[in-house]
Amino acid sequence: MAVIALLLTVVVVTNTAFRYAPQGGAAAKDSVASAQAFMKVYSVLMSPRCVNCHPAGDVPLQGDKSELHTMAPKRGVDGKGLYAMKCANCHQPANTPGLHTPPGHPNWHLPPADMKMVFQGRTPNELAKQLMDPARNGHKDRKKLIEHADDGLVLAGWNPGEGRTLPPMSHAEFKKAWITWITKGGYAPAAK
């Protein structure tokens, strides 16, 4: 009898453990926590540091007011400009010293024409759905999305050069919210 009682206890405990364990070793899905985390992410993505390179059109934006780029460069097929108006002509491998001078990065560019990754004008619901869709996010799965938080151009948003405001939270806070959003299910906040 004691052996049967022990076996029943093991079966009940084991079944309970499997019933509540997250599947596949991933974090448990939580639509509320995921959507709340995305709202933090969204506050960064809507900052000029992100929106300026993710415009609705083919001309990048500039400055803290996200105005059309004064030189009116065009995106181009690869996102690096057209003809003699290449991004790298002004945007050097590092920030140019001085107030409001061109920020820099070795691979400065907009998203390519076939995958524009528009942030400007998107609602939280629209942008979250776009970012989770590999057909609209640069062909990134969840793992690649998480890795993208440390991409050099993403990090450049927190080193924008003199005279520009930073995103509304630190990169560490952004990355934490980004990972929470994705690992908790990548849920889109409700449409309004």
β-strand amount:
under 5%
What overall form do the CA principal axes indicate? globular
Strands of the largest sheet, in order across it? 1-2
In DSSP terms, counting alpha (H) and pi (I) runs of 4 or more, how many helices? 7
Q: Helicity, in percent?
A: 25-40%
The main pleated sheet reads as: 2 strands, antiparallel
Number of domains: 1
Total beta strand runs: 4
Radius of gyration: 22 Å
- Provide the residue-averaged pLDDT: 88
Based on secondary structure, the structural category is: mainly alpha
Low-confidence runs (pLDDT<50, min 5 residues)? 1-25
End-to-end Cα distance: 61 Å
Helix and strand run: HHHEEEEHHHH
Describe the structure.
With about 190 residues, this protein is mainly alpha-helical. The chain has one domain. About 40% of the residues lie in helices and about 5% in strands. The chain has seven helices and four strands; from the N terminus they run H-H-H-E-E-E-E-H-H-H-H. The protein has helices at about 1-20, 30-45, 50, 125-130, 140-150, 150-155, 170-185; strands spanning about 60, 65-70, 80, 85.
Would you summarize the structure shown here?
The protein has one domain (2-183). Helices cover 38% and strands 4% of the residues.
